[in-house]
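Methods — Computational structure assignment.
A single polypeptide chain was analysed. Its primary sequence is given first, followed by the predicted tertiary structure written as structure tokens.
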Amino acid sequence: MTVRVRLMQGNEACAEGALYAGCRFFAGYPISPSSELAEVLAARLPQVDGRFIQMEDEIGSLAAVIGASLAGLKAMTATSGPGFSLMQEGIGYASMAEVPVVIVDVMRAGPSTGLPTSPSQGDVMQARWGTHGDHPVVAFCPGTVAEAFALTVEAFNAAETLRLPVVLLMDEVMAHLREQVELPAPGELPVLDRKRASGPRETYLPYRAEEDGVPPMAVLGEGYRFHVTGLYHDERGFPTGDPRRAEALIRRLHRKLELAAERFCRFAAEGTEDAEVLVVAYCSVARAALQAVRLARQEGVRAGLLRLLTLWPFPAAVVRRTAERARQVLVPEMNLGQLVGEVERAVADRAPVRSLTKASGELIRPDEVLAAIREVAGR
């Protein structure tokens, strides 16, 4: 069998992963540092009978993606911080209407226009709480170019099987980093599709959930009648002000994710079995942290790295279990401390949690992480 090995950029790998997962529609608006995603898919989607549309803005982009998904296509958009902010209302709509979509957010320094071509991890909390209300969301965060491919496939799997918006978070470094990637053959990675409506059309209830909390989904134009709204609604999809139905709906939206959360929890670990200092990191900062952990080991400091690939739902059980033997926990981030609070909540009183932050538009360097490891280890 021919091995498909390529030198790929993170954005390019993400685009190819989307095609592998069956994405056939992309709508977006160019914005640094995510623009290569649109450039690649503008050329590649027509080759697989897909559709690419450059929209007038990010609001219209996500609206088009939601429409394409309702019409039965796997659909995606890509953006960066300012555009991600504009998409929040559409993300809330997709959550309430249970429309599977994938949003790639290549994080850059902010707020506002910020530093358009510099890395940041400033959208971590926005990915979870950006839109208003209690809404379920999944967010993946790759740390290698190969993971950008694989986690894009996972993002589509989660969106399609759970019927919700899924976010893939990268930062500028990950988006533009080039690495050798061995592309999986067709069928090597699982590709999952949404449950389709079946049975008599006259008795179809578009929001009647099955045991997993997920309703089968009809396709617009295939004869099933259904109503789509961002309002609280009943099983027919029509708005309701009944408090009991409203409560039941929002709890079901969360329950369907809770039932599947473990299935989509991804992480990697090195040296955590005996680590006295546990470093918890994600995306490109985790690469610097890995080098720092290895250098600390050479100095006799038992350091380990827990690299989070799923940020939301936050893998609290994984963090808690990994931190059981640690005396200190260090969380380096390219922001002013967005995920460290979740780590503290998970670790509880097992060990002190130290935050290492940087918001200058520069990557946290291995020597900076190593200095923090020495400090918390008392060296």
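Note: The CA atoms of residues 121 and 151 lie 18 Å apart.
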